[in-house]
Design a protein that fits this description.
Largest sheet: 7 strands, mixed
Shape: globular
Bound molecules: S-adenosylmethionine
CATH topology of the domain at 38-166 and 203-239: Rossmann fold
Distance between the termini: 38 Å
Helix content: 40-55%
Strand order of the largest sheet: 3-2-1-4-5-7-6
Structural class: alpha/beta
CATH architecture of the domain at 38-166 and 203-239: 3-Layer(aba) Sandwich
Order of helices and strands: HHEHEHEEHEHHHEE
CATH superfamily of the domain at 38-166 and 203-239: Vaccinia Virus protein VP39
Length: 240
């Protein structure tokens, strides 16, 4: 696995973070060393997929990147006649994902689509995963996307939503500092941490846990709760 060295050198004028070829090369290392809890959440997505997948349905992974959550879903599902569908709008990421899917020998079929998850035509969904993807969607488009997913979901289906979250009051700085400590403990320098933070400032827009719960409930999900949290990173499950 190539080590993430993208922000090691002082970059002067920092552009916005993008899921380009340079990121695709180091993404598995980047996300593991940057997102507390990621290495727990991925296998649990497999466990949740096994529980909620329904026969002859679709399992969607939105913003599938290199396919970590998608492959966990593929290996988790035991119901018959299922298909796993991965969607991402970053060409470099999806190309690498296709390579990993091709190397992974498993009977459950996988389909990858290059495209915008806010526009995709979803059908017969029993499990939908948004693993650290909604945070990159413009906030004004988030409710419509969640509604689109709810409408395409079978009764009893599950939505897994993992996000970086923000907090009200003093908890924000407490959790944020623990996140930076996590990054330091994983070998990121102060310069890397601050340059990455600036690059993400306009593109990764976190909301509070309550904002997410309210949106899921508004879309119609009967149950919506957090099943995991590590510092300012959390994962929700919502059931139709
Ligand atoms: C943090 S990564 C997701 C990580 C991945 N789910 C995993 O578990 O390893 C976010 C992904 O969402 C994709 N993305 C962002 N906005 C998108 C959109 N509107 N349509 C499709 N993909 C999008 C990015 O290209 C990126 O690959």
């Amino acid at each position: 696995m190539s080590r993430d060295r993208i922000y090691v050198e002082n970059q002067g004028a920092l552009g916005d973070f993008a899921f380009d070829a340079a990121v695709a090369r180091v993404f598995p290392d980047m996300i593991k060393r940057s997102v507390p809890g990621y290495t727990t959440i991925i296998p649990m997505i497999g466990v949740i997929s096994e529980h909620y997948a329904q026969a002859n349905s679709h399992l969607y992974d939105l913003g599938c990147s290199l396919g970590a959550s998608l492959l966990a879903m593929r290996h988790g599902v035991k119901a018959s006649g299922c298909k796993v569908v991965g969607i991402d709008n970053a060409e470099a990421m999806l190309e690498q994902c296709q390579t990993y899917v091709d190397q992974d020998s498993h009977a459950v079929p996988v389909e990858l689509h290059l495209g915008d998850i806010t526009q995709f035509d979803y059908t017969k969904a029993s499990v939908i995963t948004l693993n650290f993807t909604l945070q990159f969607i413009e906030p004004e488009k988030r409710q419509a996307l969640i509604q689109r997913l709810y409408d395409a979901m079978l009764p009893g289906g599950a939505l897994i939503l993992s996000e970086k979250i923000r907090f009200e009051g003093q908890e924000q700085s407490l959790q944020e500092q623990l996140h930076w400590d996590f990054k330091r403990a994983n070998g990121y320098s102060e310069l890397e941490i601050s340059q990455k933070r600036s690059a993400l400032e306009n593109v990764l827009l976190p909301e509070t846990a309550q904002d997410h719960i309210d949106r899921l409930k508004q879309a119609g999900f009967t149950q919506a709760s957090q099943w995991y949290q590590c510092f300012n990173f959390t994962s929700f499950i919502a059931i139709k």
